[in-house]
Design a protein that fits this description.
The complex is a heterodimer of chains A (246) and B (318).
Chain A: E1 2-10, E2 13-22, E3 28-32, H1 39-46, E4 53-58, E5 61-62, H2 68-74, E6 75-78, H3 91-96, H4 111-123, H5 139-153, E7 157-161, H6 169-182, E8 187-191, H7 195-201, E9 205-209, E10 212-216, H8 223-230, E11 234-237, E12 240-243
Parallel strand pairs in A: 3-8, 3-9, 6-7, 7-8
Antiparallel strand pairs in A: 1-2, 1-4, 4-5, 9-10, 11-12
Helix pairs in contact in A: 4-5
Chain B: H1 2-15, H2 35-68, H3 81-94, E1 99-100, E2 103-104, H4 105-125, H5 133-157, H6 160-170, H7 180-198, H8 200-208, H9 210-215, H10 220-242, H11 248-260, H12 268-288, H13 297-315
Antiparallel strand pairs in B: 1-2
Helix pairs in contact in B: 1-12, 2-7, 2-10, 2-11, 2-12, 3-4, 3-5, 3-6, 3-10, 4-5, 4-10, 7-10, 11-12, 11-13, 12-13
The chains are: A alpha/beta (246), B mainly alpha (318).
Chain lengths: 246, 318
């Protein structure tokens, strides 16, 4: 994926300006930055959800020239929170919706789709919640269900927006394991405030602040740079990076 | 609860053709050209079919609008689409227009009123942010007020007879003779039902959020326009023939959601059938209590639907 001179504005206000970066297939990118810096906006634009200026190329093809259904097989975005008007969809049916881009028009979901969903539900320990309605789930369970749906979608590029923000330690570990498995044959992007997790993954970082973005292939995770970037003191203790609380 | 609702409605629906100012003689009903048979075939049966199709269409349009705009109060009625159709029909009545190109001018103007309201809503909604769907409802309410005032101007300019005709039209009526109108409404109702059925998976994604639908590869704008155009066709034609009949589009989808707690994709046929039976039942009640002139059907749907809806919300049944 190659992004060239990407700018996004909303009601004449620039949210992101002249963003440039490129990531090769089957790698992981961490997008970091303060609140309100435009990280989610960038993610949504990369999936074709927002109008943009500049160029977003996936596999050499400009994003706006790719049909919506094909785009869904190439890239998807997993929001931090479930927002659904429909409350009576079951977990299984919701995850099955991830298979929509592969469903032939006028036909129902096939046995293969249902098998894929079954496997993902079991992988994420969600089998027991299969027939639960979305509104009856906790925020952590909803986040896992969103991740499950994205896995069912099998897009080549997956952008997770704060994927662990509602997850307990056990499910966070489960997600990280899944992410490590995914990055072998998928391009993954995570937007997060979890510096420790990003440092643990030690992959390239796109740091967004005040509508601008800096791409760091390596060397982002040193306490001096982090302190400068976030405007708060970071310290390293026994190899772990964390905020120095006063 | 669910069984009680369905059995009451089915019972009232089957009683429908046998209730009216003339009591049908069951002994002569199957005799060719008997009075009972003629009343049954030319008045009661077409009316029954019209009520069922109209109720189904109104309920389905309500379900669709609520899903598309993700707001439980959105219906063609609350968004001013029915109001546009009434104004169009009112203009045709005032101008004394008859039949043009084989289509009744009242129907044509009704459709134009509904369709132009949908176009207007689409244009106005472009100025709204994604998260401001409530503002669309306010726009619909503002349009409804505008249409009502415009209709008042027509009343003001009309003769006593014209005013009475338009006024009677605004109360809604299911009185028809023969099958011509039933066929035209059924065609558009069928088109709406067919479109929603083949697009049920897309509708299910839209019912979650625009974002979810777009991320799965749906051209949400194109699909929304398709749905709105087909609905305005069905509602425009329907309202121009029966007048506005409120409440069904609002309460029937709610009733079914509460009773079954199922996603929108599996509610399409149940909503159509329940909407049809509900209006048929209301019509049966209206005719049962009629003495001389008929009680307008729109009055009955609101009188029965209103309190029942309040009961459903308060009791949280289902």
């Amino acid at each position: 994926m190659t992004i060239t001179d990407l700018s996004i504005s909303y009601v004449n206000t620039a949210i992101l300006e002249h963003i440039n970066f490129s990531i090769s297939s089957n790698t992981h990118l961490s997008i970091l930055g303060p609140n309100g810096s435009g990280k989610s906006t960038l993610a949504k634009a990369l999936c074709g959800l927002l109008p943009y200026e500049g160029s977003i190329k996936i596999d050499g093809k400009e994003l706006c020239d790719i049909s919506p259904k094909q785009r869904a097989t190439l890239i998807t975005y997993i929001p931090a929170k479930m927002q659904s008007f429909e409350q009576f969809t079951t977990v299984e049916d919701f995850v099955l919706l991830g298979r929509y881009p592969y469903k032939p028009t006028f036909k129902d979901y096939g046995a293969e789709d249902k098998k894929i969903v079954e496997e993902i539900l079991s992988e994420l320990n969600l089998s027991g919640l299969r027939s639960h309605k979305l509104h009856a789930l906790s925020s952590g369970q909803q986040q896992l269900v969103l991740i499950a749906q994205a896995l069912a979608q099998q897009s080549k590029i997956l952008i997770f927006d704060e994927p662990t923000s509602n997850l307990d330690p056990k499910n966070t570990a489960l997600f990280v394991k899944e992410l490590k498995r995914l990055r072998k044959d998928h391009t993954t992007i995570t937007i997060s405030h979890d510096i420790q997790l990003a440092a643990h993954l030690d992959d390239p970082v796109l740091f967004i602040n005040e509508a601008k973005a800096e791409f760091h292939e390596k060397g982002f995770f040193n306490t001096d740079y982090l302190s400068y970037a976030y405007g708060v003191t970071f310290q390293k203790d026994k190899g772990m990076i964390g905020i120095s609380y006063v | 609860m669910s069984k009680l609702v369905w059995s009451t409605l089915v019972l009232l629906a089957f009683a429908s053709p046998f209730i009216g100012t003339v009591t049908l003689d069951l002994n002569t009903l199957f005799q060719a050209d008997s009075l009972s048979q003629r009343i049954f075939l030319e008045l009661r049966l077409p009316r029954m079919l019209l009520s069922f199709t109209a109720g189904g269409t109104l309920a389905l349009a309500g379900l669709l609008f609520q899903t598309l705009f993700r707001n439980s109060l959105m219906t063609p009625f609350t968004l001013g689409v029915s109001g546009g159709a009434v104004l169009g029909a009112g203009i045709a009545i005032k101008m004394g227009l008859g039949i043009a190109f084989g289509i009744s001018a009242v129907s044509l103007f009704g459709f134009i009123g509904a369709f132009s309201t949908v176009v207007l809503l689409i244009i106005l909604s472009r100025y709204l942010k994604r998260a401001e769907q409530e503002s669309l409802l306010l726009l619909g309410i503002a349009l409804s007020f505008f249409y009502t005032s415009a209709l008042m101007v027509i009343f003001y300019l009309s003769s006593f007879t014209e005013t009475a005709t338009i006024m009677r039209f605004t109360m809604g009526s299911l009185s028809i003779v023969g099958y011509e109108n039933v066929i035209s409404i059924s065609l558009f109702a069928g088109l709406l039902l067919f479109t929603l059925w083949i697009k049920r998976f897309e509708l299910q994604l839209l019912s979650i959020s625009d974002e979810q639908a777009a991320l799965k590869g749906i051209n949400t704008k194109q699909l929304t326009y398709l749905f709105l155009i087909i609905t305005s066709l069905a509602i425009g034609v329907l309202v121009s023939l029966t007048g506005p009949i409120g409440f069904i589009g609002l309460i029937v989808p709610h009733m079914l959601r509460r009773l079954y707690q199922r996603p929108v994709s599996s509610l399409i046929f149940p909503v159509f059938i329940l909407g049809g039976l509900f209006l048929l039942a209301c019509d049966t009640i209206a005719r049962y209590f009629s003495t001389g002139s008929e009680i307008p059907i729109g009055v009955i749907t609101a009188l029965i639907g209103g309190p029942f809806f309040i009961y459903l919300i308060i009791s949280k049944q289902g």
